[in-house]
Amino acid sequence: MIAFLNKYSLLLIAIVYFLLLVMAAIMEEYELNFLIAGLFFTAFIFIPWLIWQVVLVFRLRNERRKAELMHLKSQVNPHFFFNMLNNLYGLIKTDPQKAEVLVLKLSDIMRYGIYEAQNERVVLEKEVEYLSNYIELHRMRYHKHIDVNFKIDIRDGYRVMPLLFIILVENAFKHGVENLREKAFVHLLLTTANNEINFEIKNNFDDSLPPEKPGIGLNNLKRRLHLAYENKYQLKLEQRNGEYLAQLKLKNI
Where is the Signal transduction histidine kinase internal region domain (predicted)? Predict the structure, then answer.
């Protein structure tokens, strides 16, 4: 009760003062001019309070949005690092030079995830470098040929939320490449034009296996897109004839 009175004291004073003026006017103890002056005084107290309450609501909503986005970012790629560390353990004895390269690329990926991922937006070139390192690590991880093609046609001045495309790339390797013994492919295309960022990734998969339910990663991606881009994005997912296609369009905001 005390906290309520402290928070809304100005509003309560304004309401009480306004009611007293109305009662006085009804009883004809005050002139009309004095009543009008009192109304202006009440508005002078009430309107700033109302504006401040609206500001607080939007500030709280924004803080909650940022906190949820940070939580969602922290869920990206945990099992990937475990897999790479296991591979690294085996490479240290069998191929020390390859293990050194893997450690350097893995450290670059972790550095990006720790520092750059804290930002709301990063320049698109940094995200491209991160994706390239991630793809190269997967090339080193699998002991089979993978047809990976990453076409890039981007211009300066474009920014994107960090760790956004990686979920689609991770799914292509996890649900496609990992289950195929041969002729596995992952084709990526990233372009910018007309203040839009267009990302497309296509991969094949073993369609003889039972269909998998949508995982946490895609739900994570959809939620982050909704929070950060609202109605300024388009995400299309489709699969047919043993191929999976994901297309993501973003406004450069």
Answer: 67-145
Question: What is the Cα–Cα distance from 160 to 197, expressed in whole angstroms?
Answer: 8
Q: Residue for token digits 């969602």?
A: 72
146-153 vs 184-193, strand pairing mode: parallel
pLDDT score recorded for residue 220: 83
| DSSP type of residue 77 | S
What's the whole-model pTM score?
0.69
Q: What is the DSSP string of 86-129?
A: HHHHHHHHH-HHHHHHHHHHHHHHHHHHHTGGGSS-EEHHHHHH
Alpha carbons within 13 A on the beta-carbon side of 151: 10
Spatial separation of the C-alpha atoms in residues 10 and 45, rounded to whole Å:
7
Q: How far is CA 50 from CA 9, 12, 108, 136, 177, in A?
A: 13, 12, 49, 55, 57
Of 3.40.50.720, 3.30.565.10, 3.20.20.30, 3.30.70.260, the CATH number of 75-251 is 3.30.565.10
Domain boundaries, the chain: 2-71, 75-251
Look at residue 1 in the predicted model and tell me its pLDDT: 46
pLDDT-flagged residues of the chain (< 70):
1-80, 212-215
